[in-house]
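ok so for the tutorial part 2 we go from a plain amino acid sequence to predicted structure tokens. step 1 is just haveing the sequence, like this:
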Amino acid sequence: MNTEYESNYSPELQEKPKTSKWPVVIGTTVGLIVGFLLATLVAVVVLFGRKTSVSDSSQGVIDTLTEDSATSESKLQTILYIIKNYYYQDVDDQTLIDGVYAGIVESLDDPYSAYYTAEEYEDLMDTLTGNYAGIGALLQKNAETGEVSITKVYADTPAEKAGLQEGDIIVSADGIFATEEDLDVFVQHIRGDEGTDVELVINREGEEMTVTCTRASISTPTVEHQMLDNNVGYIQVSQFTDGTYDDFVAAYEDLEAQGMTSVIFDMRNNGGGLLDSVVDILDYLLPEGTVVYTMDKAGNREDYTSDAANYKSIPMTVLVNGNTASAAEIFTGAIRDFDYGTIIGTQTFGKGIVQSTIPLTDGSAVKLTTQTYYTPSGECIHGTGITPDEVLEYEFLGGEEDAYSVDLDNQIQKALEVLASN
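step 2 — the prediction. this is what the tokens look like for a chain of 422 residues:
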């Protein structure tokens, strides 16, 4: 597991937000909990026979508190009472309640699960459309270290103008440390009102520096394409969002119209995205069959399939690296298992689990890891990744003064060689 999308995901594979009966049931439960947490605090005092001894020092330390017949619910209510009455600053009720909900999810010790407040969830949905006011950089979070790094800087954006580079590690945004937040929440500190500034502390090759970016309205393309020599099409997908399928089809058809006879799919630094998005694209490319399947803890299997109505039959290659994750690995695994193309690059990230975002009736949401996914051949790649057919470390073939181009990308050049041999 995602991820300013400025993004998304950490890296994550997500199902679209549930629209079944879950939100109703869970929303009702949340309503009951909220009502319970805001119930009269007098009852807590009576129930527990509270005994406190506050010292005469200015620290106001609570020495003792006895609980005569505690249940987990009443204990929670007692803790809330203590905070409301003895914490040295005023605390908003909603902040406390959201903290309780977030703490429940955090207890799972799963870096891909999270609780979103109503405001956070609304911002997340805006981000998944690819339209937002931000800086124009694609971010990815390392699930083990918590570090957030830049995997792509979009052209003509505040990020590019401020000099941000691929590989930069974002330490903090406006004083909020990246390692202390879920990525979806952290990027909301980077995003904001158009024309306002965000101060980023970044680490570049061991040196920390502060960069100020002025937020702008941004529509980030998730698909870019061009025709290379010998009628080889090149399609780069940076993430899988709601609009990626339409953009992918448009790119593919444009290259077809130009006479494309083979194609390179670039999934390097693609941290994932929506399950439905990558499945739709695989359905467009592949013949009939299962392109991926998921399994929950009860052993329930769900197959995602391609039908025979639409498929392509030209030679293909897929470029991958250590930041190729989640939905991008589903794409890679399906192309490999259908024997539809050659995989080139380095070992992929290895995220083989699915998150489901479940909206609640009050506008908040819970994101949980709910399933493990398997490639068509039945392989679970979680924690291991996919080994390319042609293992090749990236090397820039130009000099220090040369700008990036596909001609100077050794992995793209290798893909051209493979396609020429076919």
